[in-house]
Amino acid sequence: GRVEIGNDLFCVPEIQGQSGPWLAVDGFLNSSSDWPKRGVFGFLNALLVNKRDAERLIAALEEKEYPGNQWLPEAPSDSYTFAGEIPWHPAFGQPVEDDEPGGLYNDLIKIDRQPSIKTEILSHSFSWESYHSDLNRAGSALVPSRDFSQRFNLRGIPQSFSQRLPDNSLGAICLRAPEDFSGCLLYIREDLLREYAGARKLIWFLWGERNLHGYSYSNPEWLVKAHREHAVIWRRIVRAEQLSRAFQTQKPKRKVTKP
After folding, report:
1. Rounded to whole angstroms, how far apart are CA atoms 164 and 140?
2. Residue 159 β-bridge partners
3. End-to-end CA, the chain
4. Given 90, 190, 200, 247, which is the most exposed site by the fewest CB atoms within 10 A?
5. Start-end of H helices in 85-155
6. Mean per-residue pLDDT for 145-173?
């Protein structure tokens, strides 16, 4: 089988009546339907990388046999900051002691027999655990990284994980998974992301696994072999300039929206 990912997942002209374009920067989707005992899950990763390392990163993403096990940088997690105080409260995105500025979101991707590649991710995970409260079920949401939010002075919207700019225009939208899926997706407005990226390249990497369910005791040998050989893995790599006109230009221009 094949997993087909449409371009409209990455670059969306409009979301819920809000004009963009909007670019996806992080996400996880897992099919939740029990029929026909088949499932698929996938991770969406948006990576900012220096122009000189872009092709080397793409080659590594294509060749890595199994891209899991924390090989890629992951969004830091925050469980106990009050959601209404994201992203401005000092406790949100608190850097580790002796960490470099932006160290929460900058990481090295290790490449066999080659120098590691420095990348930056653009998201932060809000991971409140609902068992702490019968009233508060919010959690497992994605918000822009603290660095990104501070750059544009973003503020959270009440009863939402989306964020606005000082001119009251939307800068980031967090969406729950569609029907028959679990997970969430984070979108950032194209002009803001282009300005933040500067001279760096934006590369999308999607990957996940196709799985079969319903075996009562143990998986058949052919399925065990498929997992062992990583035949269940699917992936797709997309350069931002393939879908985003803003990333095809040298000088980004921010769209000004009146409040």
Report:
1. 20
2. none
3. 48
4. 90
5. 146-151
6. 92
Q: Per-residue pLDDT for 135 more than 60?
A: no
**For residue 11, what are the contacts with CB-CB under 8 A and spacing of at least 6?**
21, 22, 23, 24, 190, 243, 244
Tell me: pLDDT of 9 over 50: yes
pTM: 0.87
- Determine whether 207 is exposed, middle or buried from the number of CB atoms within 10 Å of its CB (0-12, 13-18, 19+): buried
The count of other CB atoms within 10 Å of the CB of residue 168 is 10
Strands (E) across 195-253 are located at 201-212, 233-239
Residue 64 CA to chain centroid, in angstroms? 19
Element (H, E) at 11: strand 11-15
CA distance linking residue 174 with residue 26, whole number of Å = 10
Judge contact between 174 and 186, C-beta under 8 A.
yes
- C-alpha 237/C-alpha 258 separation (Å) is 36
Full strand arrangement of the beta sheet holding 141-144? 77-78, 123-126, 141-144
- CA 186, CA 144: separation in Å to the nearest integer? 8
How far is 69 from 109, CA to CA, in rounded Å?
Answer: 12
Amino acid (one-letter) located at 158: P
Check pLDDT > 60 for residue 111: yes
Query: What's the DSSP call for residue 97?
Result: T
Distance of CA 25 to the CA centre of its chain: 4
